[in-house]
Amino acid sequence: MSVHLSRRHVLRIGGATLVVTAAAPALPALAAAAVQADLVVYGGTAAGLVAAVQARRMGRTVVVVQPGTHLGGLTTGGLGFTDSGVKESIGGIAGEFYRRVYAKYNGTAVTPTSPARFTFEPHVARAVLDDLLAEAGVPVYLGARLSSVTRSGSRITELATENGQVFRGLMYVDAGYEGDLMDRAGVSWTVGREANTEYGETINGVQLRDKHQFDRPVDPYVVAGSPASGLLPGISASPVAPNGTADERVQAYNFRMCLTRDAGRIPFPKPAGYDPAEYELLRRYIDAGYAGPFFTTQGVGGGKTDSNNNGAVSTDFIGRNYAYPTAGYAAREAIVAEHRTYQQGLMWFLANDPRLPAPVRTATASWGLPVDEFTASGGWPPQLYVREARRMRSAYVMTERDCRGSARAGDPVGLASYTMDSHNCQRVVVGGAVRNEGDVQTGVPAPFPISYRSIVPAPAQCTNLLVPVCLAASHIAYGSIRMEPVFMILAQSAATAAVLAIDAAVPVQQVGYPALEARLRQDGQLLRWPPAVTGEIIVDNAAASGVTRAGTWVRSTATSGFYGPDYEHDGNTAKGVNRLRFTPALPTAGSYAVSLRWTAHENRAGNVPVDVVHSGGTTTRTVDQRVSGGQWVPLGTFTFAAGSAGSVLIRTESTTGYVVADAVRFVPA
């Protein structure tokens, strides 16, 4: 059921008033005088709002300067099925945000130990952020595009916006997806993919692989079989470079659609500028036998979805975003409009084109846009998913080695844990058929620390700026870090460091890490993994002892959130034959809280039987492995004898989908 919210939050901005609601707010009248604050945050993403809330909680003044009119970035812009990896590694205000989401749906209080919810409708996410802003008294300026930055030596002294407003602060945070403030402040950055050789990586640069790939040959030419006729839209004529080669291409963008099958849904509109040629490649793919899926339909609540790219030809507008990271505002608006036209046209094509099989049209037309989301834009999300734009170059560049755990920063300000994930970057012709290039999906073994040095510029470039979103990371490492919870985590840490720098009157690069670490821990940030749990006993699928199997189990790292080096699955075969038992060696008899872990995906079984063998007998639980991945899911508290008499058995009888076995945890109750 949808959560409907009507309360309004009034935020004071100097002498102006800004009313923030779940709908698009009206712009305030801007005063001519400069706005001054201890911290100026540029970018009204969820990260920017969290940075502002943290500064206010530390007793400092702050202002958020948002170039557009949408607040919350992707968190409120359709990405309601949170890409999170190991959810237990999300602390601080980010963790509080997801607990507040749960409380909003359930009408419960928010405490440090209350449940979290990582799936939500966009308007609920917006309401939660509105609450945080209102409670902290954060002023927000909308429609304030950056025009210039003034510096004195290595310090920013003020930024001006196109509407004539001036903002002055002691410290600044660039929380935008594009890194515009970082750029105008003279900080070094890069765009595109590094060669594997630059940082000693293995999956950076060009990557011609098998994910979101054509699984049957499709002719790429305007006239099939005739290279002289030219290529269909979006297909590159350049030969594909060897894997690991550097280039300036950027992984594809799209909109995270919120869809519904509600009877009152808005049908997919046919956009102005609709061009059937954009979908000829997909039509040929369907003619060759491809029947879908064409987009994801992951549920977020209220009968709605967070629908993302899925398959060789889907919502990603591959190869059409290369200019976006460094473009001016007008050019970016044009690129956003092109993406919107393409994706709206795609949905209309799938639902209406008479050349398509009726099942494809019927299945697509059963979905539509909700009437109670994004009401100012006809149900269409206002935020383009800018997966990657500029990335800072600084003293510490996060790389694949950090993600894999072979390098470990000694000054962590947060944890990341999602798969090293890049969407496709180009379409190419290989052997006379079209292929996608650039998709990488490689799991990480555990949450890994992100260095403080990766969110601050080189000291010679700027000493009062922090960059928690466009941080210093290689393309493939950024693919793991670039998740909304992590951006919020890093933004809170950035604001904390900014306040400590003000207090000590030092550049951000000279903030003492012990003091920063102490304050971050005080405020609930998680900085190292695994966090200590007194007396816990974990049996991992990769353990040398304590794991027995029947049937065939396949090891995998394809989906992030696993404990240890990997997880196992039953291949969705041999149901009832495949079984896996975890047997702990408990040091003492007594009561233990038992939790199970798995990696979640929509192809998992929702009805997995799990037997807990304890001193009182056997208790069977049923778990849904389509959700709650990357976290310890409680099975209950049971009494066990010392030693190895107890166990947890994962069965596959009558399961519908892949069954995963990852790890079991026993904690003395």
CATH class value of the domain at 9-191 and 393-522: Alpha Beta
**What amount of the residues lies in strands?**
15-25%
What is the overall shape? globular
Biggest sheet overview: 7 strands, mixed
CATH architecture field of the domain at 9-191 and 393-522: 3-Layer(bba) Sandwich
pLDDT average, as an integer?
94
Number of helices: 12
CATH fold-level name of the domain at 9-191 and 393-522 = FAD/NAD(P)-binding domain
Q: Can you tell me the residue ranges where pLDDT is under 50 for at least 5 consecutive residues?
A: 1-31
**β-strand number:** 33
Summarize the amount of helix as a percent range.
10-25%
CATH homologous superfamily label of the domain at 9-191 and 393-522: FAD/NAD(P)-binding domain
Derived structural class: alpha+beta
Distance between the first and last residues' Cα:
35 Å
Rg, alpha carbons: 25 Å
Question: Could you characterize the architecture of this molecule?
Answer:
- With 669 residues, the protein is an alpha+beta fold.
- Among the domains are: 9-191 and 393-522, FAD/NAD(P)-binding domain (3-Layer(bba) Sandwich), CATH 3.50.50; 537-668, Galactose-binding domain-like (Jelly Rolls), CATH 2.60.120.260.
- The chain contains twelve helices and 33 strands.
- The longest helix has 24 residues, at 329-352.
- The model is unreliable at 1-31 (pLDDT under 50).
